[in-house]
Amino acid sequence: MFKKILIANRGEIACRVIKTAKKMGIATVAVYSDADRNALHVRMADEAVHIGPSPANQSYIVIDRIMDAVRRSGAEAVHPGYGFLSENMNFAAALEKEGVVFVGPPSPAIQAMGDKITSKKIAQDAGVSTVPGYMGLIADAEEAVRISTGIGYPVMIKASAGGGGKGMRIAWSDTEAREGFESSRNEAASSFGDDRIFIEKFVTQPRHIEIQVLADQHGNCVYLHERECSIQRRNQKVIEEAPSPFLDPETRRAMGEQAVALAKAVGYASAGTVEFIVDANKNFYFLEMNTRLQVEHPVTELITGIDLVEQMIRVAAGEKLPFTQADLTITGWAIESRLYAEDPYRNFLPSIGRLTRYRPPAEVAAGPLLATDRWVPSRPDAHPATGDAAIRNDTGVYEGGEISMFYDPMIAKLCTWAPDRPAAIEAMRGALDSFEVEGIGHNLPFLSAVMDHPRFVSGDISTAFIAEEYPEGFTGVTLPQDELDRIAAAAAAMHRVAEIRRTQITGRLNNHERRVGENWVVTLNGQEIPVNVQADRAGATVSVGDRSLRVESGWKPGMPLAEMMVDDEPLVMKIERIPAGYRLRTRGADLKTQVRRPRAAELARLMPEKLPPDTSRFLLCPMPGLVVGINVAPGDEVQEGQALATVEAMKMENILRAERKGVVKSVSAARGESLKVDDVIMEFE
Fold first, then answer.
1. In the 8-state DSSP scheme, what is residue 18?
2. Is residue 664 a contact partner of residue 649, using CB atoms and an 8 Å limit?
3. Which CATH architecture has domain 132-201?
């Protein structure tokens, strides 16, 4: 076995690999750019090597810099994680030439499967069902339009060397095909150093289901069942689960056997993923094979008990797989929610800054696989499943750290496991509610909203789920009235505790509970809910309309998280003090809350509402980023939906469009300029 491994990556996946390597007694080497000097993966590793400036194309994806770090550290093997150089055959070949083991598949397999055009041809030869499309090289945008018209809209424009949603666009018209080709090619060149593009038919109402495979160097190959990855935004996965709520055993077996056949056809050895599009009739079509560890690999680990990183390392060291296909059963259900540094209220645009508070829920070990920072079994039967839910959080950040504009906006991957899907969803709801993140925009509210959405709960999902259910973007969650009543009761009980504390601090110790009073009006985002609070030593009974709700909690003023029982059901809320009240966040809802005496509430109704400033004449930068294109000039007349400017942030190009017809009065930003949130790009007459 290896004595020292270098991880050619950053963030949470580097931390993830380090955990397993330490469990195996292997020393670890981190690499870091200027921006990552104080990163968590650097702190966790046994040693670290600086590899250059902050941009990835000057550090993490420069093969010579990584090779220099390998030589300086004396590492015997390199784990590439995912993204960056993980599917770069030149990197694998460079390691092989140096006599260093690549913890991944052989370079010929990377070459065959890493190129999506070549991989589709090989898949067809191996008898794998594929999506109709054009696999040749495309010279320019006009050729892309001609090909798209021939295939028939809608089409998917994809980077041949792409992955992680980068370099992918869906086009429904000639205009979108032209724009999509240019953006995909630019993103592909920036992210992967390869601007080749191909086009295939876009299957409407599809489900994205992938098969995890694992092969050794001795001809053994197995599939570890499937992952459902249909909840996607901008072609990037947001929520994954294993197994899929859609597949039956026969389809699962057929997909798994085809995935194994494809892996064997290219002499595969290591962990890999074969991605399929599945239609409503369970017809499945090969999309691509990712010759690396997937972001969503934890859900497979949670239902099988297999540590995929450990197996990758053992396979790279020449060991045989310690199990056969018959050993790989499915135990329970696992869900992964990707926590991103992006603002769901601004169309999920990237957010950067300092994490002023970062408190994930406590990890809980249960099921066939324990949390990865504890003992992890190598066999599915090494640890018996329990009836308890598990919580796992794979992360690469810490409180006080910064989210950089240079890299992917992922903060963490929150996973839950339970004996069945409803229990796994409920565990995820509680974990999301108790996850504290402050200082940046993040998608926790959206993730909570999905967990409560009837379509997701029923399993009736497709890759169009977000577009169909949130066509105007995410504007927050409107909770049902019975849930608002529970929150009002909790807020009143909390306010009473705070009021008692204030009377004690001011010296009014005698009869302070009587002075606090019993009747209050709770205002939740403008809705008034009268309540009556009857307290005792164990909690309070709060009357809300004709309901009598029992509230029990150990919350004290100043605590940012309230874990309560209301009407015998758990309620977890994030608490922030604001003028004259609280900001309460739970189940995706963000509630401005005041608790007033009835007379004060009556007077508050007379106060005028402060209106936000009118910014309708301006195009404002929606996220921190770099201006890579200005499409109009002063005096130009623009139409609704017309592209006005392009801003790049976190490796993604974002096209800003006109919301309505108008005339450009002035342009304030220029190509190459870095902008902050709400900086003015242009003004309209």
1. H
2. no
3. 2-Layer Sandwich (3.30)
What whole-number distance in Å separates Cα of residue 361 and Cα of residue 347? 26
d(CA 422, CA 202): 31
Which pLDDT value is given to residue 371? 40
CATH number of 4-103: 3.40.50.20
* Residues with Cβ within 8 Å of residue 476, at least 6 apart in sequence: 345, 445, 588, 589, 590
Distances (CA, A) of 436 to 175, 355, 359, 392, 594: 42, 10, 5, 15, 22
DSSP codes, 462-509: -TTHHHHH-TT--------HHHHHHHHHHHHHHHHHHHHHHHHHTT--
56-103 residue pLDDT tens: 999 999 999 999 999 999 999 999 999 999 999 999 999 999 999 999
Q: What is the pLDDT of residues 117-150, one digit of tens each?
A: 788 889 999 999 988 788 777 889 999 999 999 9
Q: Is 250 a catalytic residue?
A: no
Where are the chain's structural domains?
4-103, 132-201, 207-469, 481-604, 618-684
Cα-Cα end-to-end distance for the chain: 69
Which fold, 618-684?
OB fold (Dihydrolipoamide Acetyltransferase, E2P) (2.40.50)
The token pair that represents 171 in the structure block:
């086009």
Which of the residues 187, 275, 288, 653 is marked catalytic? 288
Annotation: CATH topology of 481-604: Glycoprotein, Type 4 Pilin (3.30.700)
Which residues, in sequence order, are CB contacts of 438 under 8 Å at separation 6+?
355, 356, 357, 358
- The C-alpha atoms of residue 557 and residue 516 are separated, in whole angstroms, by 15
